[in-house]
Amino acid sequence: MLEKLSYLEESTGILEEEGGEMFAREITEESGKLREAIEELELKSFLSGPHDADNAILMINHGAGGTESQDWAQMLMRMYLRWAERRGYSAKVLDLQQSPEGGIKSATISVSGPYAYGYLKVEAGVHRLVRISPFDANKRRHTSFSAVLVCPEIEESDVEVEIKDDELRVDTFRASGAGGQHVNKTSSAVRLTHLPTGIVVSCQNDRSQHRNRETAMKILRARLYDIQIKKQEARLEGIMGEKKDIAWGSQIRSYVLHPYRMIKDHRTGVEVGNVDAVLDGELDPFIKAALRRKV
After folding, report:
1. Where are the alpha helices (DSSP H) in the chain?
2. pLDDT digit string (tens) for 236-252?
């Protein structure tokens, strides 16, 4: 980065000489790249948590709004998959509960890449959509909600999270959705229920029941660790965090497509008018502002 800065300083000096205009475009492009690199470095300085550099497990659940919210949950899933693709991250859908009416009821996604959890952790919360419903013959405006939960992807040796066998119920079932004849004929999908907390996780991504169980255990371990950390934070603050419903009054961000087009983050005040770009994964303005706010 220092070498690039020195190069730009020298190139700027050439501009003052005769014929230096030919370097103007190159200097502008290099300056933009340097600015992006500095912003990225600044953001990484904010990511100093014990698991910020780790991969992430992102879970989406539909909320109030019926078929509308299930469609909205599917839109959110695509948005985060596109965000991961834009950053060059690897994203894999581990579990997908589709709705017969349309959309999805829930999705669990593994996002692998440098600081994936550090960036995505600020996306946790309730997301609200306002639009003219494509499912309403009278073309009325509807409001939908879906919730996003983000946990670090952790290995068994990384943290002390005890999961006893007698506190775990294991169910197997046939995987749904794409996957060919194999997944439809064998009970390869695994559902784990942690009895003390009531947490239910499932995985049907792999044809191997053993691998699906391993992945489901990793998700459960991440969920329990997330609860453990939140309890510690609440004790430090002297309060227990209030669980919010996936409905009015609890949203972190609103995506308004009618009567105007605007996406606003209620924590930072950041507003973006290009809603199509955001829904296509351009989330960095919101993530950057949220990280700065946390610091």
Report:
1. 2-15, 24-46, 67-86, 116-120, 180-185, 209-237, 275-279, 284-294
2. 444 333 445 666 667 99
